[in-house]
Write a structure and sequence with these properties.
alpha/beta; Rossmann fold; 8-stranded mixed beta sheet; two-stranded antiparallel ribbon; NAD(P)-bd_dom_sf; NAD(P)-binding domain-containing protein
Length: about 250
């Protein structure tokens, strides 16, 4: 399997990378990193880069030309995208240093894939509480999230809208998220990807993980570690049909 990962320098995507490197079914990994030297002294990743199993390209996942350089040279079987900016807590809740980055990167990725006539499985990391899923959360989180995660969730709504529009087996939401311009929403690629997985983690923590997670589209859960979400994606979303064209909530 040739796996491409966007956002692998940290968080969930980094843990996907670590798990993938321990899986013999994943023989090649391609990374697009703004700072390609981030893994130079990483004892887990640096040897895989030296051996050629991991290929690192410098670039920004919101730029189509740089995504095309990553994806156009060789066929990719699965793409995992977990793009995000640096969060900061304010009186208005959490704000991100790169507003709209999830939406912008998803739009760029889908445009490149459509142009290349490429149809890999796309696994994207979103968040619990988006759209109709908000009503299924525990009451304290239903109260907390609209303040704490209002801005990041607007960005995730854009991400999910674009992926559902691009998926051939998922319905496109009726309402266009405010983070998307009308022209971008109208011209985004439509119904061409046969396999899409949108993973919706519960409230993310930085714990070491190694706990069993529960996953269901209507899962009732509070929190989960980034490490365990990464392992869930690597073990249960890259291969097999369990979560294809579904939107599982993942937590404890």
């Amino acid at each position: 399997m040739h796996l491409a990962i966007l956002g692998a320098s940290g968080g969930v995507a980094y843990n996907v990378l670590l798990s993938a490197l321990s899986d013999t079914r994943v023989d090649r990994v391609s990374l697009l990193l703004r700072k390609p030297g981030v893994f130079e002294s990483n004892e887990h990743v640096a040897p895989a880069i030296a051996s050629g199993r991991v290929r690192v390209l410098q670039g920004d996942a919101t730029r189509e030309a740089e995504l095309e350089a990553l994806l156009g040279a060789d066929e990719v079987d699965v793409i995992v995208t977990s793009i995000g900016g640096a969060p900061r807590l304010t009186l208005r809740g959490i704000v991100i240093d790169q507003p709209g980055v999830c939406t912008r990167s998803a739009l760029a990725l889908l445009r490149v894939l459509a142009r290349l006539h490429a149809t890999p499985r796309v696994v994207a990391v979103s968040s619990m509480g988006i759209g109709d899923n908000h009503a299924l959360m525990p009451l304290p989180l239903r109260i907390l999230y609209p303040w704490l995660l209002h801005t990041p969730h607007q960005d995730k709504e854009g991400l999910e809208y674009l992926l559902q529009r691009a998926a051939s087996a998922l319905p496109t939401p009726r309402d266009v998220p405010s983070v998307l311009s009308a022209s971008d929403a109208a011209t985004a690629p439509e119904a061409f990807l046969p396999e899409v997985v949108v993973v919706r983690p519960a409230l993310l923590t930085d714990g070491a993980g190694e706990h069993e997670v529960k996953a269901a589209e209507d899962a009732y859960t509070y929190y989960v570690s980034r490490a365990d979400v990464g392992r869930f994606i690597a073990r249960r979303c890259l291969i097999g049909d369990e979560w294809v064209n579904k939107m599982p909530v993942v937590g404890y």
